[in-house]
Design a protein that fits this description.
mainly beta; Immunoglobulin-like; five-stranded antiparallel beta sheet; about 45% strand
Length: about 425
């Protein structure tokens, strides 16, 4: 009997030891700084035996390192020691006093914590605006989806309230190209095309947030595409919604249309001297208007951009964005032949109809000549070179006018006198 009692006592002590000697030790973390939503790996070791249905659970403390109120953030279904890898909740507060521990479920055992405080940080908040900058003054937001001309200056205004390292890349054609710091300097764009500003903030935990802004940079020498729709007479049409070709309104072209839509790209519309457009809706494109060209619209869309030269007429609502070129030259190298012929770019003959209305003398001249006009009280005088580039523009209201083109290169030029819908053209030679 004594032997049996001794045996049972040994068995009882063994079972008691197995039931009550389990421990969990949470190991040191690989870093002391983490980002919300980021991955974290928690190593743990054990002593004793755990039930086959046991799970080990990672618990995150409150912001002060206390486990009175904790968050269960991950678990593994196992009896053995190892590592729990999980994600930090994205909705917790920033603190550098967090702790973490591992517990078991069967039996329930609270493990030790990781032994030292660590930080969890939210991602920085990026916010900035791109503004016009002229004469050392920030003068308002950029027009029409951040549109500027080559040589214009912009200023990025940082509105972030986050701390960290600030890095800027201003994209293609920008001077300067990069900057590190909260308040970036003014930036000049020297090349046309789309350019993307990249702005990032990295905080002490390495949490990084990036924001971007697209800058559309235009110049005053746009290229007319081969597939451009040529408007060379009075045309009453509606441009289809699925059509994205450019539109070229030549000297005698007048386009009357209800809509010019743009869905797939920024449609370019070119209005030559003496050309006109009347439309009710224009959505998201760019209209270039030379001196003596006119555009009228009742659309209130603010996504379109008008680029004009002195002498261009724009009868448009104030919601549209307007940029000004001192002069404008269209690139005709790829332009459709129909428009080339309409513009008579390869040589303009005297307009025999009403040709006696205007008289030029002397012709040839050294660039200084007299222009005499009959039966026209007022109008526009536009002089172009053989490529159609405007080299002279003036508004006249007298019959006799002296014109000085002595600063222009020698060659053939074309004098256009526009009064209402009447256009008279004469060829002159500067030698």
């Amino acid at each position: 009997m004594k032997t049996l009692i001794t045996f049972l006592t040994v068995i009882f002590c063994f079972i008691t030891t197995e039931l009550y000697s389990q421990t969990i030790t949470t190991g040191a973390l690989s870093s002391n700084l983490y980002c919300v939503g980021g991955s974290i790996s928690i190593p743990y070791s054990i002593t004793g035996s755990f039930d086959p249905l046991n799970s080990f659970v990672a618990q995150l403390s409150d912001v002060n390192g206390s486990f009175k109120n904790f968050n269960n953030i991950g678990s593994v279904y196992t009896m053995v020691q190892g590592t729990i890898t999980c994600n930090i909740p994205s909705n917790i507060a920033t603190s550098n006093k967090y702790r973490i521990r591992v517990i078991s479920t069967s039996p329930f055992v609270n493990g030790s914590d990781n032994g030292s405080d660590f930080g969890i940080y939210k991602y920085p908040t990026t916010k900035f605006n791109v503004w016009k900058y002229k004469n050392n003054i920030v003068s308002g937001r950029l027009p029409g989806y951040n549109s500027i001309l080559v040589g214009d200056t912009i200023k990025c205004v940082n509105q972030s309230d986050s701390a960290g390292i600030f890095n800027w890349n201003f994209g293609f054609g920008a001077i300067p190209g990069n900057f590190s710091g909260y308040d970036p300097p003014p930036v000049v764009y020297t090349s046309k095309g789309a350019s993307t500003i990249h702005y990032s903030i990295t905080n002490v935990a390495g949490c990084n947030t990036t924001d971007t802004a697209l800058i559309n940079v235009y110049d005053c020498n746009p290229k007319i595409d081969t597939n451009a729709i040529v408007i060379d007479t009075i045309m009453n049409i509606e441009i289809p919604m699925n059509d994205t070709n450019d539109i070229w309104v030549t000297t005698k072209g007048i386009l009357n249309t209800d809509n010019i839509y743009n869905f797939k790209k920024n449609r370019n519309v070119f209005v030559e001297t003496g050309g006109a457009i009347y439309l009710t809706h224009f959505d998201g494109g760019v209209i270039y208007v030379k001196p003596g060209g006119s555009v009228s619209t009742t659309s209130d869309n603010d996504r379109s951009v008008f680029i004009r030269t002195p002498g261009a007429s724009l009868n448009i609502p104030s919601t549209f964005s307007v940029m000004d070129c001192n002069s404008m030259k269209f690139d005709y190298k790829a332009a459709p032949e129909k428009g080339i012929i309409a513009m008579k770019i390869n040589g303009v003959e005297d307009n025999t109809q009403n040709s006696d209305i205007i008289t030029i003398y002397p012709n040839p001249s050294n660039g200084i000549f007299n222009l005499s006009i009959r039966d026209i009280n007022n109008g526009d005088v536009i002089i172009t070179d053989v490529l159609g580039n405007t080299v002279y523009f003036d508004r006249i209201n007298t019959a006799n006018n002296s014109i000085d083109m002595s600063s222009q290169p020698k060659g053939i030029y074309f004098v256009k006198v526009i009064s209402g819908k009447n256009i008279n053209i004469k060829k002159i030679i500067v030698d």
